[in-house]
Amino acid sequence: MKPYLRPALLGLGLLLGGLAFWFGGPVLLRRVGFFKVRRVELVGVSAARPADLIAAMKVPARANIFDDLAPYQARVYAVPGIRSAEVHRRLPGTLVVVVTEAPAVALAPRNGRLTMVGRNGKFLPFDPTVSAPDLPLVDEPDARVARVLGRLQEVDPELFSRVVTATQVRGDVVVDVGGRRLWLRPDVTAEVIRAVMAAETVLEQQGRAWKELDGRFAGQVVVRGRGRSG
Length: 230
Description:
Low-confidence stretches: 12-25
């Protein structure tokens, strides 16, 4: 064999060996007890019950981390209230499950107890006692109210944390922030929310009391109940 052919053949051999391991390696590793699934780690879980997600995965007693992970991922994703799910391997024997839960925006009474409400205005299958969320109260699930609360949650988390209750009034949404009210349209934009909060800041700087800030009108924020504080 000519000397200059040896590096090429060696490289070809390594390439073929790598391909063989890539396609056949997982099959062989599934038979190695060292890679048996010993632990399931959940990431992103706050409202769902961890035990429910693990039970939904249906991991067999002799499962190996090199088994096909797609079925586990599909089963977690099928759990109500889960918006996305990914399952990864961590050597030597851990499955890492990363989930995104449907965000809750309010609590509403249901069958004598408070239940989480999502941004779509529907009840979520989460038990609020698990995560003890500090959320606004609503009389009943309402898509318009939930949409406004969801926008507040996205645009101004600090403002959202101040919301005590929210309700629909003649098609608009009234938000109570510690005894004062914000009037908003169901399709409220980020710009309007920022304008309303800017108006509140100016009133506070001027020492002016107010009862309502109305952001339903284009290009302006109407202030009601104005007067000097105290």
